[in-house]
Automatic annotation (TrEMBL):
Residues 28-283 form the EAL domain. It comes from Pseudaquabacterium pictum. This is GGDEF domain-containing protein. The chain holds residues 425 to 713 of 713 of the full protein.
Length: 289
């Protein structure tokens, strides 16, 4: 790539960039303006990926994942707009919308499906949201307005976020005190380690997909998964394996005593209307050894 001097900043430092970088910058600026409109125009919606109980078999919950239907660009991945939403502060409004929607949706499933409703709904939280002192009251209000049990809501935070910052940990403890459960998302990819796990106010550890995908071919990854599950169990925490795509991965994770699983083997994230049919057909547990 042709690198060239782009600009001299006020502080006298040189910023060098290439055309691809300019392209990305222009795109993210467009995304921020568009994202602001998207919130007003209701272009954001929530899909739900089933989570299954690996030991007993059968569905046990769902994870809420945000989607954006852009009028020109079509479906935009959260991997593309969550970072932009975080940088611009829009994540606070976006996150509140997802949280409220997910709690209301769980209440609706409980009304229509009774005992067949998902036992819990998981919602992803960004570091920016965790820095807002108002988050705790917000979570409490969403749960109360929906009329769901606090224990039916699980909030997912990434390990670096939960581990690094004492303010964040204190906020998580306040949320836990409401009865809401906390999961450590993408475990294995961040800064923290098994040695820090006992300091974190979490109920569940989610083993990252990158470990699951190497579990059968790499001793290192498999042993790390095994150790994570054993340490988590010792601390009274449950475990979820992310990104299970094959029956043999499911069987391995089941053998390693992982509590729950999530992945394309069972289902991709589904539109809200597609969840009840999926639950009612109760697909056979293909992991059964
Ligand atoms: P995550 O929380 O780790 O969610 C799991 C991601 O893995 C989802 O991607 C899901 O669609 C994908 N996935 C699930 N099973 C499989 C599988 O078997 N194979 C593969 N290849 N992928 C699988 P998605 O929906 O694109 O979300 C990506 C990330 O964006 C999420 O990762 C989460 O960090 C973030 N995100 C999504 N929705 C929200 C939200 O409402 N708020 C915040 N703050 N972040 C969100
Ligand atoms: Mg998650
Ligand atoms: Mg995850
Ligand atoms: Mg992940």
């Amino acid at each position: 790539t042709a690198m060239y001097e782009a600009k001299r900043t006020g502080r006298g430092r040189y910023v060098v960039f290439d055309p691809a970088m300019h392209e990305r910058l222009a795109r993210s600026v467009a995304t921020e303006a568009d994202l602001r409109l998207a919130l007003q125009r209701n272009e954001l919606f929530v899909v739900y990926q089933p989570v299954v109980d690996l030991q007993r078999g059968g569905p046990c919950g769902v994870e809420a994942l945000v989607r954006w239907r852009h009028p020109q660009r079509g479906l935009v991945s959260p991997l593309e707009f969550i970072a932009v939403a975080e940088e611009s502060g829009l994540i606070v409004a976006l996150g509140a919308h997802v949280l409220r929607t997910a709690c209301q949706q769980l209440a609706a499933w409980q009304r229509s499906l009774g005992a067949q409703a998902p036992a819990s709904v998981a919602v992803n939280l960004s570091a920016v949201q965790l820095r807002q002192p108002s988050l705790v009251a917000e979570v409490q209000r969403c749960v109360a307005e929906a009329g769901i049990a606090p224990g039916a809501l699980q909030l997912e935070v990434t390990e670096s976020l939960a581990a690094q910052d004492e303010t964040a940990r204190a906020r998580l403890r306040e949320i836990k005190a409401l009865g809401v459960r906390i999961a450590l998302d993408d475990f294995g990819t961040g800064y923290s380690s098994l040695a820090c796990l006992h300091q974190l106010p979490v109920d569940t550890v989610k083993i990252d997909r990158s470990f699951v995908s190497h579990a059968e071919t790499s001793d290192y990854h498999r042993v790390l998964i095994e150790a994570t599950i054993r340490v988590a169990r010792t601390l009274g925490m449950d475990t979820v394996a992310e990104g299970i795509e094959t029956p043999s991965q499911a069987a391995l994770l089941q053998r390693l005593d992982c509590g729950r699983g999530q992945g394309y083997l069972w289902s991709p994230p589904l539109a809200a209307e597609a969840v009840a049919p999926w639950l009612l057909q109760r697909p056979p547990q293909r992991a059964a050894a």
